């Protein structure tokens, strides 16, 4: 299933969400222009390499920096597209400053859980997907009745369908959790598939649990504006 858009219109311009997208893109552009040895050194320094943190607990900064790196063009496009769909509404509900703090802490929580399940791994974990998973968790709390316009490919055909955010995000989380559990037999959760499943789980659980506390009773309520599109 490929998400196309949601049906909730943001009431304010998502300044922080767009800033995050632009910064991720700039970092990826910088990575793209490095030669192989420079790129390897960059990734080893700023990605989350669990074994390095285990051997040097003072190296805490990768928990913050890993969420700004991406491994491929499709990796960053996929992540930024999902952030574009869900992030604007969460920023609208939390406010820009709290949204930024929430996003960063969600990424850190994702990195911590990934590290917990792969402390001895030499495989770098990188990408914004853990922080974006936190945004998706918050979206599920704030907009459980929203709809996600989704493209469902079947063989050579495909259909656009509207799926409730509860179903779409819920199925996504169950897939991450199942994949994380099945990866436990490997030395690291990224070892088999190249995907940091537990980072997704950690970020999502952070978003699910911390969305309401971040509101502190001051978040404005938002109507469910299900706009009518021809498709």
UniProtKB/TrEMBL annotation:
InterPro entries: Peptidase_S54_rhomboid_dom (IPR022764), Rhomboid-like_sf (IPR035952), Rhomboid_protease_S54 (IPR050925)
GO annotations of cellular component type: membrane
Domain of life of the source: Bacteria
Keyword match Iron: no
Membrane-crossing residue ranges in chain numbering: 12-32, 67-87, 99-117, 123-142, 154-175, 195-211
Protein name: Membrane associated rhomboid family serine protease
Membrane topology according to the record: Multi-pass membrane protein
GO molecular function: serine-type endopeptidase activity
SUPFAM superfamilies, alphabetized: Rhomboid-like
One Pfam family, short name: Rhomboid
